[in-house]
Amino acid sequence: YLNASAIVYYIRSEHRDLPKIRLPNQLYVFCLDEPPHYTFEFFKDVSRDFFNISMTYRLDSDIYYPYDTFVPCNGECQLDEYWTEKEVMENVIRKTGLAMQVNSDCDTPSKRETLVQELRKLIKIDLYGKCVRGANCDFEYCYNRELENHMFYLAFENAVCKGYVTEKFWNLKHLIVPVVLTRRVFDKWKVPDSAYIAVDDFKNITELADYLLYLQRNRTEYLKYFEWTKTYRKTNYHVSTQKTRAQISPSIYPLPKWHICPNIQSFM
């Protein structure tokens, strides 16, 4: 590591082997893609002025590091870079499942599991993952297949934090409509309002359930949630974060712009 210009600390693993020697021109980057509830325990070995730069899901980070993003075509998309109307229509017509969710975190700060259980009393929800006995869903075969087969993905955040959007939200690029906990988390994001459904748009769970059932019966209304496909690219995680990763390079991001993060815990 002594030959590196920058060291990125991904705050989801314990840092018991923090460097004993630090070079004066070496940059320490704080990288976080999960809510702080799951990461505060890893700060106890880190001093307040340890990091030079923040790279997180927060829009006010030094380097913005989302799970994914919307990339507009601006009239420059090739045919294979966006969804055609026919492709969207065919995908919607063959969906037979109503709602689904895959979970590996069974007791969350947001208590999303309680909401799912209440909603499950009103509509059919297919649950997969470690929280459901005998319902494992491997990514390559089961997960992608079920996304294609269902109309809605319950993309409830495990914690409601400033700027945090779960990676499950981006399942919408499999042409499924995500249902999130709150709309306000997208206030400063460039996310079309009509691309998703928010629980807090409704007075109660019954009203939400009735609306999902209404969309199941009315595919014309359901299709309106895919208007964004006419404007944005078929991007994936690797493409949309290319620029973010490039910013770590001091040759691209000049050294004078880097600084000390005095208290990363307070920032998060």
UniProtKB/TrEMBL annotation:
<keyword id="KW-0735">Signal-anchor</keyword>
<comment type="similarity">
    <text>Belongs to the glycosyltransferase 10 family.</text>
</comment>
<dbReference type="InterPro" id="IPR001503">
    <property type="entry name" value="Glyco_trans_10"/>
</dbReference>
<dbReference type="InterPro" id="IPR038577">
    <property type="entry name" value="GT10-like_C_sf"/>
</dbReference>
<dbReference type="Pfam" id="PF00852">
    <property type="entry name" value="Glyco_transf_10"/>
</dbReference>
<dbReference type="GO" id="GO:0008417">
    <property type="term" value="F:fucosyltransferase activity"/>
</dbReference>
<keyword id="KW-0812">Transmembrane</keyword>
<keyword id="KW-0333">Golgi apparatus</keyword>
<feature type="domain" description="Fucosyltransferase C-terminal">
    <location>
        <begin position="94"/>
        <end position="244"/>
    </location>
</feature>
<keyword id="KW-0808">Transferase</keyword>
<keyword id="KW-0472">Membrane</keyword>
<keyword id="KW-0325">Glycoprotein</keyword>
<dbReference type="InterPro" id="IPR031481">
    <property type="entry name" value="Glyco_tran_10_N"/>
</dbReference>
<dbReference type="GO" id="GO:0032580">
    <property type="term" value="C:Golgi cisterna membrane"/>
</dbReference>
<comment type="pathway">
    <text>Protein modification; protein glycosylation.</text>
</comment>
<keyword id="KW-1133">Transmembrane helix</keyword>
<dbReference type="InterPro" id="IPR055270">
    <property type="entry name" value="Glyco_tran_10_C"/>
</dbReference>
<keyword id="KW-0328">Glycosyltransferase</keyword>
<feature type="domain" description="Fucosyltransferase N-terminal">
    <location>
        <begin position="3"/>
        <end position="67"/>
    </location>
</feature>
<protein>
    <recommendedName>
        <fullName>Fucosyltransferase</fullName>
        <ecNumber>2.4.1.-</ecNumber>
    </recommendedName>
</protein>
<dbReference type="Pfam" id="PF17039">
    <property type="entry name" value="Glyco_tran_10_N"/>
</dbReference>
